[in-house]
C-alpha cells in the first residue's frame, strides 16, 4: 500500500556531503520525494522528534548531535514507505548493520548514523506533522 513517511538526513550526513547519495538510494528503492527542505533545528524541535527517548541516558547527547548542524527534512511517498525506508537506512545497532544499507556503508557509530527514518506509521504521521 502507498503511504507517506518522514526521513531526516542528520548533521553528519550533511557535513559529509552525503545528501545526494542518500536521496539516490531512496529513489532507487522507488520512494518518491514529495517535499524537502534544509533546516538547522532548534532544541525543542529535536526534543519533540525524539520524545519517545526522553529520560534515557543518551537523550541529551542525541539532541546535542541533532542540533549540531543543518539537517535535511524529507517527506517521502512510496509502497510500504515506512518499512522500505527503514530497510534502506539500515539497523540501529552497528553490529546488526548490513553492507548495502546507508548506515552499513557509511557509519561505524551508534550515535552519528547519517540518517533517520520514522519507525512506525504512527511515528511517521506525528513526525510529518512536526516538520511539514
Ligand atoms: N543505547 C544507545 N546509546 C547511545 N545512543 C543511542 C542508543 N540507542 C539509540 N541511540 C541513538 O538514538 C537514536 C534514536 O534511537 P532509536 O532507537 O530510535 O534508533 P533508530 O530508530 O535506528 O534511529 P532514528 O530514530 O534516528 O532513525 C539512534 O539513531 C542513535 O543515534
Ligand atoms: Mg527511531
**Could you say which small molecules are bound to this protein?**
adenosine-5'-triphosphate, magnesium ion
Strand sequence of the main sheet, in spatial order? 2-3-1-4
Number of DSSP helical runs: 7
Radius of gyration: 14 Å
CATH topology: Alpha-Beta Plaits
Class, according to the CATH hierarchy?
A: Alpha Beta
Based on the structure given, which CATH architecture is correct? 2-Layer Sandwich
Percentage of β-strand residues:
15-25%
Count of DSSP strands: 4
- What is the CATH superfamily? Nucleoside diphosphate kinase-like domain
Low-pLDDT runs: none
End-to-end separation: 22 Å
Based on secondary structure, the structural category is alpha+beta
The domain count comes to: 1
* DSSP helix fraction: 40-55%
Explain how this protein is built:
By secondary structure, the protein is an alpha+beta fold. It has a single domain, classed as Nucleoside diphosphate kinase-like domain (Alpha-Beta Plaits), CATH 3.30.70.141. It is built from 7 helices and 4 strands. A 4-stranded antiparallel beta sheet has the order 2-3-1-4, sandwiched between helices. The radius of gyration is 14 Å and the shape is globular. Adenosine-5'-triphosphate binds next to strand 4.
Question: Descriptors for this entry?
Answer:
4-stranded antiparallel sheet, 7 helices, binds magnesium ion, binds adenosine-5'-triphosphate, Alpha-Beta Plaits, 132 residues
Describe the structure in brief.
The chain has seven helices and four strands; from the N terminus they run E-H-H-E-H-H-E-H-H-E-H.
Amino acid at each position: 500500500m502507498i503511504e507517506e513517511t518522514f526521513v531526516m538526513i542528520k548533521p553528519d550526513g550533511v557535513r559529509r556531503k552525503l545528501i545526494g547519495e542518500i536521496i539516490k538510494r531512496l529513489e532507487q528503492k522507488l520512494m518518491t520525494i514529495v517535499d524537502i527542505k534544509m533546516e538547522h533545528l532548534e532544541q525543542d524541535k529535536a526534543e519533540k522528534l525524539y520524545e519517545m527517548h526522553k529520560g534515557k541516558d543518551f537523550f541529551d547527547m542525541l539532541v546535542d548531535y541533532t542540533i549540531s548542524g543543518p539537517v535535511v527534512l524529507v517527506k517521502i511517498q512510496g509502497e510500504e514507505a515506512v518499512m522500505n525506508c527503514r530497510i534502506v537506512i539500515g539497523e540501529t545497532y552497528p553490529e546488526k548493520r548490513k553492507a548495502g544499507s546507508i548506515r552499513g556503508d557509511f557509519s561505524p557509530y551508534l550515535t552519528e548514523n547519517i540518517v533517520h527514518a520514522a519507525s512506525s506509521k504512527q511515528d511517521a504521521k506525528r513526525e510529518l506533522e512536526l516538520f511539514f
